[in-house]
Each structure stands twice: as C-alpha cells, then as structure tokens.
Design brief:
- By secondary structure, the chain is α+β, with helices and mostly antiparallel strands.
- It contains three helices and five strands.
- It has a five-stranded mixed beta sheet with strand order 2-1-5-3-4, with helices on one face.
- It starts with a strand and ends in a 5-residue tail after the last strand.
- 21% of the residues are buried.
Amino acid sequence: MRVTVHLPGLLRADADGAAHVPVEVADGTPLGGVLDALTTLHPGLDRRIRDERGELRRYVNVFVDGDECRGAGGLAAPVPDGANVRVLPSVAGG
C-alpha cells in the first residue's frame, strides 16, 4: 500500500528537502512500520522522531488521516492504504 508522510519545515532538511514523502509498505502495516520505511529512505529522520528505545519522542505528534496516533494505539495504530501521515514536532518558545 502507499502512504504519504507529510513533514514540517523543521524536518525537511533530514528528508532532502521533501515536504511529502511517498512510502510503500505491505497491506496492514501499522504506523511503526510506516515510520520504519520512512527512516529507511531518510535515516536522519529516525533520531528526530523516535527515541533510543524506538518510541515516539514525547514532543513529536503523529497524525494518521487527522487522528492523533497516541489515542489510536501509538506505533501500533492502523494505517489504511492511501493515508496521510503528518509528523509534527512541538515548538517551544514565547
């Protein structure tokens, strides 16, 4: 199945400047597998999205078709064919 991962400006440098990255994964692949495929294409993104245990960093929010993934199973969240996955790191400041 094909999924499109949308990246904000803060992460695009680690994806060769791409705002949208198409990712091919097997049918039924959960969010963790989609992120695995994404970081295989762009290894620099892994350290920005996941911590040393492989979990989502607490300041990174990931949405699958508009639904925040933590409420839908985290890295085990289902991802349908053609889904739009958005990775949004929190921004601090005043």
